[in-house]
Write a structure and sequence with these properties.
The chain is 53% helix and 7% strand. The protein has 329 residues and is mostly helical. The chain binds adenosine-5'-triphosphate and magnesium ion. One of its GO terms (molecular function) is tryptophan-tRNA ligase activity.
């Protein structure tokens, strides 16, 4: 059975983009693959975080994985900082990475736009930690949204470089990007991707938003003045994004939706988009409410960390041996 690894940062409440682009696919994958799902809290601290908020986000993210359908009897769900092998291998891979290639990462460029003085070095060296996350578990496939493609390419390069330079121990992973939903866009600036860490709350739908909020956010989503419901990503990015969201949430094809709304304005269309989103998120929210304060969740996460650590340690030992760290025992 092939192995899948995927991580999500607890940098805010998950968005509909995270769900449609990532989580939703994970649920199907866990039947056919050996899956590792990780709350990558050490990635989240590359940018400033409030201590209590971070703790809350970590737990909330773990509960959302389960509420969305991740089954811990099939998959390993754990918190990155509870498995110290990640930072250990992350450091070793930093020593295999070049500053130049890290500086070329578009996410680093985007998130450090305010100038390099106020940006942590962790933001620059985050990709080797991500590579460690993946390589520790002999991962074959990494299912991600389009935004992570470049980091995945770097992971592959680092694995190959390590294998050539030291010893051939790492599996070089493949990236898998969903055909639809890989890039859900911001509701306010539909040419940017929807992000949970966006400062503008109106730009994203959180997986925990209530009905009223969802309706309000969809209604105030930026579209255009044409009034025609048509999928045209170039010229009508806002409408195209709503069509994508509606289509995935309802299971109705974009073409059928275009036909259904050809004579209505955006008002009716948006109302229905919102209802489809509400129907998708409601059962998840109900399960989430049962889980969030439960001991059951802690038990699941303990079990996940134990299993992950056991596996990760085996690979870490190999990597240390390959690099000549520590003693011969
Ligand atoms: P942040 O703004 O903190 O980076 P994020 O919303 O980009 O948050 P990540 O934790 O970086 O979320 O990514 C989690 C997963 O969700 C990844 O697999 C990523 O590819 C996917 N993803 C993130 N944003 C989108 C989006 N807008 N559409 C589809 N998939 C997405
Ligand atoms: Mg991101």
């Amino acid at each position: 059975m092939k192995t899948i690894f995927s991580g999500i940062q607890p940098s805010g409440t998950l968005t509909l983009g995270n769900y449609l682009g990532a989580l939703k696919h994970f649920v199907d994958l866990q039947n056919d693959y050996n899956c590792y799902f990780c709350v990558v809290d050490e990635h989240a601290i590359t940018v400033p975080q409030d201590r209590l908020q971070l703790r809350e986000n970590i737990r909330s993210l773990a509960a959302l994985y389960i509420a969305s359908g991740i089954d811990v009897s099939k998959s390993t769900l754990f918190i990155q900082s509870e498995v110290p092998e990640h930072t250990q291998l992350g450091w070793m891979l930093q020593c295999v990475s070049y500053i130049g290639e890290l500086e070329r990462m578009t996410q680093f460029k985007d998130k450090s736009q305010g100038g390099k003085e106020g940006v942590t070095s962790g933001l620059l060296t985050y990709p080797p930690l991500m590579a460690a996350d993946i390589l520790l578990y002999k991962t074959d496939i990494v299912p991600v949204g389009e935004d992570q493609k470049q980091h995945l390419e770097l992971t592959r390069n680092l694995a190959q470089r390590f294998n050539n330079k030291y010893n051939d121990i790492f599996t070089v992973p493949e990236v898998s990007i969903p055909k639809v939903g890989a890039r859900i866009m911001s509701l306010q600036e539909p040419t940017n991707k929807m992000s949970k860490s966006d400062a503008n709350q109106k730009a994203f739908i959180s997986m925990l938003d209530d009905e009223k909020k969802i309706l309000k956010k969809v209604k105030s989503a930026v579209t255009d003045s044409e009034g025609v419901v048509k999928y045209d990503k170039e010229n009508k990015p806002g409408v195209a994004n709503l069509l994508t969201i509606y289509s995935i949430c309802s299971g109705i094809s974009v073409e059928d939706l275009e036909e259904k709304y050809q004579n209505t304005g955006y008002g009716v269309f948006k109302e229905d988009v919102a209802q489809a989103v509400i129907a998708t998120l409601k059962p998840i929210q109900e399960r989430y409410d049962q889980l969030i304060q439960s001991d059951e969740l802690d038990d699941m996460l303990d079990q996940g960390a134990n299993h992950a650590s056991f596996q990760a340690n085996k690979m870490l030992k190999k990597a240390k041996k390959a690099m000549g760290l520590g003693r011969v025992r």
